[in-house]
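[PROTEIN RECORD]
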Amino acid sequence: MIHMRQYNAFETDNIKFLVDRQVEFTTIQITETGLRKSILDATAPVRSYLKEQGIHDYSLQQQGTEHKRAIDTFVLDEGTMYETKTRYTVLSPRKETLGFGLRE
């Protein structure tokens, strides 16, 4: 298991809300470096979730930034909704990423 910090009260309430309504979801805790660079490694659990939910299948994507795929994404925090595009890229056979750029 990847080390994750404890959820704050806002996150705990949101998770409870989703679980109570039987909404499937995954959480991604972004490090300061990931937030600064606007890119994350697509870990095995994230890749699996994206594939199972029909959002993105890295195994079907060609390698290279010219083959990246982008979808509209909304990120919520306390009182603010950010619209962004999540970019899925295969950089090498062993390196998949997802990128984002937040804007209000």
Notes: The two ends are 32 Å apart (CA to CA). Residues 9-20 form the longest helix (12 residues). Strands lie at 39-41, 69-77, 80-92, 95-99.
